[in-house]
Structures are given as structure tokens and as C-alpha cells.
Amino acid sequence: MTVKRRTLRPDFPYWLVAAILIAIAVAVLIATSGLYSQVFATVAKGVGVTVRVTLIGYALASALGLAVALMGLSRSTVISQIARFYIEIVRGVPMLVLLFWIAFVGAPAMVALWNVLTQPLQALGLLGEASVRDFSLEWRAIIALTIGYSAFIAEIFRAGIQSVEVGQVEAAKALGLGRYRRFRHVVWPQAFRTILPPYSNDFVAMVKDSSLVSVLGVADITQMGKIYASGSFRFFETYSIVAYIYLILTIGLSLALRALERRMRFNTTTAPEH
């Protein structure tokens, strides 16, 4: 008599089951422990800032990245080279260095430029002179993340747009579609399926990189944890909760984006042929 050995299913998300069990165990610990509940209540105050910085930064980075990608695909050598210069320079600077540069060099320069451009209005008393202190550290961080990620997103968009077959574009031209309509109805829908996996991966990466804004004193998750730990010396408990919250955000977002990818693939494969 032979006994069948049970084998693990390779397509079953065992890692997700383990992660959920650990998340539940930590949630129970937070609910039952006064110390952990206090740490969680303090650190969780920074969730709103983290989400806001990430959403605004990534939306602006996507818009700027698309513009740079289209510039890079331009037939004009000057425009395409400007886009390539921007991408290579920005990608070559570490995000933390870029954050400091924008916060303490770029922001004062932008304020000075604004004052120069609005000098006639200031002379008439219609506007007051802007101060660097009026430029919040949170917006400096958002601008830095926008610039830093726009270079990577531009390359993702460029690769996705170039993946569309030239014959598709030529067929759209033959139908009399203008440049915008060709991009809107032919190129972009096909390119987006190629773009989505790396694009969503960068979105998750920005959630984690948003923790860098804590070096400017922005009250995000990491900064709130840093403040609590420095005052209580509960470093293990504090940074364990910080890591827990980030994992909840990133894993939840990754699962949602993967579900979107599967849905798009399913819609593509089941679409009726004309």
C-alpha cells in the first residue's frame, strides 16, 4: 500500500498567509499591551503625512515623467537631448542628497526668483515679499520626491510607448487620427499594460522613500517614531511598530496593484476579436 505524499502548491501564496498571521499577532499585541498601544497611537499620527506626501509626490512625478518621456521621443534633437540630460543628471543623484539640495538650495532659489518676478506687484503693494520660511518643509520634500522619481518614471513611460508596434501607429495615421488621438486611443492603452508593473513598483518604492522626509523634520511615520524613541528610549518597540505600519501599507498596496495587473491581463486575453 502506497501513501501519497502531499506536495506544496507552487501557486499558493504561503508567504501571504504567514504575513497575515504575523500581522494579526502584532495587532493583538498592540490591542492588549499598554506600551505597544501607546507607541502605535503616537506613530500612527504620521500616517496621514506619509500618505499625503506619497500621493501628491507620485501624481506630480507621473505628470512630469510623462512630459519628459514625450520630450525624449521628440523628433527634435534639442528637445530629446534636454530630456536625456534631465534624466541622467537626476538619476545620478541619491534621493537623500536631492532632498537636502531642494530643501536648502532649491527652495531659497525659487523664493528669490519669485520675489524678482513679482517685484512690480510688490512695489504696488499688491503682493508681499515671500520668505523662505513660507515654503513649508513638507512641500520641499514633495518637490524633491517629484523630481527624483520623475526621471525613473520617464524611462518607464518611454519604454512602454516604444513597445507599441509601429504598424499600429501607421494604421491610426491611415485612418486620419491626429497625433493626440493616436496617443490617446491607440498608443497609450497598449503601452499602459507594459508600463503598469514597473510603474506600480515605483509607487510602492515611494511609500518607503517617503520616510526620508523625516530628515527635514516632517512629521511622517518615521519622524513620529524617532521623536517617541528619543524621549522614551523604547527603540525596539518603536521601530518595530514603524516597520509594521510600513509593511501594512506596502504589502496592501502591492496586493491591490497585482490584482489590477491580473484584471488587465484577463480583460486583454478574453477580449473578443473583431
From TrEMBL:
Keyword Transmembrane: yes
Main location class: membrane
Membrane topology category: Multi-pass membrane protein
Gene3D superfamilies: MetI-like
One CC-aspect GO term: ATP-binding cassette (ABC) transporter complex
Top-rank lineage group of the source organism: Bacteria
UniProt entry keywords in alphabetical sequence: Amino-acid transport, Cell membrane, Membrane, Transmembrane, Transmembrane helix, Transport
Subcellular location: Cell inner membrane; Cell membrane
Membrane spanning stretches: 12-35, 55-74, 95-117, 241-260
Pfam family, one: BPD_transp_1
GO molecular function, one term: transmembrane transporter activity
Span of domain ABC transmembrane type-1: 47-257
GO BP annotations, alphabetical order: amino acid transport
Family statement drawn from the similarity comment of this UniProt entry: Belongs to the binding-protein-dependent transport system permease family. HisMQ subfamily.
The name this protein goes by in its record: Amino acid ABC transporter permease
Organism annotation: Mesorhizobium denitrificans
